[in-house]
Design brief:
Elements: E1 3-6, E2 9-12, H1 13-26, H2 31-38, H3 42-50, H4 57-67, H5 71-75, H6 89-98, H7 103-127
Antiparallel strand pairs: 1-2
Amino acid sequence: MPTISLPLVVLDMVAFAERLRTLREARKLTQARLAELIGTNPRAYNRWERGSFVPQLETIIKIADVLNVTLDELTGRVSTVNEPAVHNPKLYALLHEVDALPDEDQQALVILMDSLVKRAKINRVMAV
């Protein structure tokens, strides 16, 4: 089992790979999509999930940002809190900014989102 040792830090590559896969799957992302979101080659990403290699620190930070977890959660220093309520990373990031919008803009978003959800439900019913 390969291990990377840095001063005061030991990263178990197999455990990191498993955590990376689990967090990615919890957010319903494919390996290719996560690789695209962090700006890396899907083959390189696949090697990280297999535990063959570990990404550079800069890339680990990008992964944590896209998966909406802390570096401590991603590296296993602390338990992962919970699965996010919103799986789309861009939508999740925007969700935090919505709270700063004026009330009337927030209401407009509620109406828009409600209509999109209702349309999707109708489409599912019609498809059956």
